[in-house]
Write a structure and sequence with these properties.
- The protein is 27% helix and 15% strand.
- It has 14 helices and 17 strands.
- The strands form five sheets. Strands 1, 2, 3, 4, 5, 6 and 17 form a seven-stranded mixed beta sheet that branches. A four-stranded antiparallel beta sheet has the order 10-11-9-13. A two-stranded antiparallel ribbon has the order 7-14.
- The protein is globular, with a radius of gyration of 22 Å.
Length: 534
């Protein structure tokens, strides 16, 4: 079987959905594939509420991303029994989460994304293939001719398109198409970054987290069966954590013995104070409200029996090995979920309580929220992908406050979007174990970082752009991935409309400016104000 389209988007995460929408709105026919049953990637199938920045409500987001955010809030206002105060709040945050200004049930995000795409499905301009993975790529010189995908039923389909966008979570098309790319950590010699290691290691990648959702019903017992490998995870002290147990609330964070982390189930409103400015994060952040997706007091009394919380914590950051690039990659997929399963059991049975006891048997695994039988996310939370060798590689000296001082991030003449986060967010890795990567100024997305050096009609549309392992830590968040997808979806449509190709566009300043006018007309933010800083 073969499908023909103007643009094929392989991968239905944040970047893939955004790219498809941009191409569809430009009048193009699109085939969109997704490995899981849900579109939305890190926001939905990976169970991660939006990671955003402190300016997000007023600045630093495309119009299309604001439409998504508004859609999430409006869905709650239309369909949920909110309190009058919550309904009237223009910055409604249903989970009242510490890390996200719009923290929602993933099923709401799925519904909103499906609504955004429905008109194009109805008009037969979009084909969506869920539970479908790429298995091979046919190339003709420096062009991709088609992508063969396999559905859940085992059927194989050749998708042929003028442009192919790789929006997969791990950059799966890059090796299949022979695209020059890197993975893991680069060396100082390769990137010139002061924060890079002297040596490179393509298998040294940020850990993944297999997320899950929980609530707590006092007086009930929802303890899962003890995992066979529970003792291993309970006692494990990964070398990346300097000998600390992974299943713990942390070692004392100060000489005074303050706890590393706080965990207070269903806290009283007076004690549940949220400051969304991550620069003010204290030494003992509260885990319960960190990734919470429903807070009871925003809904009519009794509607929710408990808050609902997504667990994406340091305790389920898996650093045992990468998910690709090694012979035992499949083993690490299983181990990442096994760690999270043991974390559930530890929380229910052995986790230390403030009252001196251990465990909360009333803690319930919310399989319905995850959309799976076992209660864990459909897909692990991916922080690092294969990355193209692009016409331009973004390096830490171009955005890090440590090297730019008060000068702000590099301003690129070919900017096609903006982004920001509180940190260059680098979790512990599968190799050297390093974490934090400093802080970034609000930054731009250069067009050159979205174009492979050689391939002419394949473009990256997710976390697989021309970043280094370090700068990926700032460019991988939800709104940035959305902006990347929108830029490449618009670029592919622009090239088809004007009979050109990405390499020709970026090579001519006049063409770059014309393309930027197209993006601006779409509501894409290309620049930050001169005075915007971290």
């Amino acid at each position: 079987m073969e499908l023909q389209a103007d643009i094929a988007v392989i991968g239905g995460g944040m970047g893939g959905v955004s790219a498809a929408l941009a191409a569809l709105e430009a009048g193009r026919r699109v085939v969109l594939t997704e490995q899981t049953r849900w579109l939305g990637g890190q926001l939905t199938s990976q169970l991660v509420p939006t990671d955003e920045h402190r300016y997000i409500e007023d600045d630093g987001a495309n119009r299309s991303y604001r439409r998504l955010r508004d859609g999430l809030r409006d869905h709650y206002r239309r369909n949920f029994p909110l309190t009058d105060a919550a309904r009237a709040d223009p910055h409604l945050n249903p989970g009242h989460a510490w890390v996200s200004p719009v923290s929602v049930d993933p099923r709401v995000a799925v519904a909103v994304i499906d609504d955004l795409l429905m008109p194009y499905l109805a008009a037969d301009r979009l084909v969506v293939l869920r539970e479908t993975v790429p298995v091979s790529v046919a190339t003709d010189g420096d062009h991709v001719a088609s992508v063969r995908v396999r559905t859940a039923s085992g059927d194989e389909i050749d998708v042929a398109a003028a442009y192919v966008l790789d929006a997969t979570e791990l950059g799966d098309l890059l090796p299949l198409a022979g695209v020059e790319h890197v993975s893991g950590r680069e060396s100082q010699e390769q990137t010139g970054e002061p924060g890079a290691w002297p040596t490179a290691d393509p298998t040294d990648m940020q850990g993944v987290s297999w997320c899950f959702a929980i609530d707590h019903l006092e007086g009930e017992d929802h303890t899962i069966d003890r995992p066979d490998d529970y003792a291993h995870w309970r006692d494990l002290r990964p070398p990346q954590l300097d000998g600390r147990k992974i299943l713990s609330f942390g070692e004392p964070a100060t000489p005074a013995g303050e706890p590393g982390r706080v965990f207070t189930l269903n806290p009283n409103p007076d004690d549940d104070v949220i400051d969304l400015d991550h620069r003010n994060m204290g030494l003992a952040p509260e885990l319960w409200n960190y990734r919470r997706i429903a807070v009871r007091r925003f809904f009519t009394p009794g509607f929710f029996r408990s808050d609902v919380v997504v667990v994406n914590w340091p305790m389920n950051d898996y650093v045992g090995g990468p998910l690709f690039g090694v012979p035992d990659a499949e083993h690490h997929w299983h181990q990442a979920k096994a760690l999270s399963r043991s974390l559930v059991y530890w929380l229910q049975t052995e986790a230390p309580r403030p009252d001196g006891g251990t465990g909360w048997p009333g803690m319930r695994l919310r399989a319905d929220v995850a959309g799976t039988e076992d209660g864990f996310a459909m897909y692990p939370y991916i922080r690092e992908s294969r990355r193209i060798l692009a016409l331009k590689t973004i390096v830490e000296q171009e955005l890090s406050t440590a090297y730019r001082g008060d000068d702000g991030a590099e301003r690129y003449p070919d900017s096609v979007g903006t982004g920001h986060y509180y940190w260059i967010d680098r979790h512990h890795t599968t190799g050297d174990g390093r974490g934090a990567g400093g802080t970034p100024h609000p930054f731009e997305i250069p067009l050159r970082a979205l174009i492979p050096r050689r391939l002419r009609n394949l473009l990256p549309a997710a976390k697989n752009i021309g970043t280094t392992q370090i700068t990926n830590g700032a460019y991988r968040l939800h709104p940035v991935e959305w902006s990347i997808g929108e830029a490449v979806g618009t670029l592919a449509a622009y090239c088809l409309e004007n009979g050109t190709e990405p390499h020709a566009v970026v090579a001519a300043p006049a063409s770059v400016e014309d393309f930027q006018r197209v993006l601006t007309a779409r509501g894409v933010q290309l620049r930050w104000a001169e005075d915007k800083r971290w």
